[in-house]
Write a structure and sequence with these properties.
Helices cover 27% and strands 23% of the residues. It has five helices and nine strands. The strands form two sheets. The chain has a seven-stranded mixed β-sheet. Strands 6-7 form a two-stranded antiparallel ribbon. The longest helix is centred in the C-terminal third of the chain and has 14 residues.
């Protein structure tokens, strides 16, 4: 729920150590990019674009982490595939935690178009911007890999939000 605290998040990083949401937040936002896993060619393309735009996010005080339920080996393979230099890759997201974040869970259909086996269960994509105080600013979830929020659009939204002190929207919880 926008303006309310998000679920806890604590995942191992391919570079060592852990990403613990809130422990060392970005100056303005943490951008959490949940992706399906190594088996997903759409994810690889999406994460390539994220890596390309990292200087734009960094200059706006946005910390970025790409997260999946993959194990360490598969997460490292994805980081290598997208030539990750700046994007942090978190792995081992439990499906319980994925569900707490509102992500959809899918079952395996075997090998994908790129010949990589899907895990038995995995989470579908989601993109969240979290304020340094741990509250949700923006969230989008998908039921499948297609039609995700474009990172260039998010950069424009961040610029607007920071310049206008624009609040998170969708916060109303009363009766309708």
């Amino acid at each position: 729920m926008p303006r309310f605290p998000v679920p806890a998040l604590n995942v191992a990083l391919t570079t060592g150590g852990r990403f613990v949401l809130g422990a060392n937040p970005g100056d303005n936002f943490d951008l959490l990019v949940f992706y399906r896993g190594l088996h997903c060619p759409v994810c690889a393309k999406y994460l390539l674009e994220l890596e390309r735009l990292m200087p734009e996010f960094a200059s706006r005080g946005v910390q970025v982490v790409a997260i999946s339920s993959d194990d360490a080996d598969r997460a490292q393979q994805m980081a290598t595939k997208v030539n990750a230099q700046s994007v942090k890759f978190g792995y081992g997201l439990s499906l319980k935690a994925a569900r707490e974040w509102g992500l959809y869970i899918s079952t395996s259909r075997g090998k994908t178009s790129i010949g990589i086996e899907e895990p038995a269960l995995f989470s579908e994509p989601g993109v969240f911007m979290v304020r340094p105080d741990g509250t949700l600013y923006y969230g989008a979830v998908q039921t499948m890999p297609f039609a995700r929020p474009q990172f260039q659009d998010l950069i424009g939204a961040i610029d607007f939000a920071l310049a206008k002190d624009y609040p998170a929207r969708g916060e109303f919880t009363g009766p309708v």
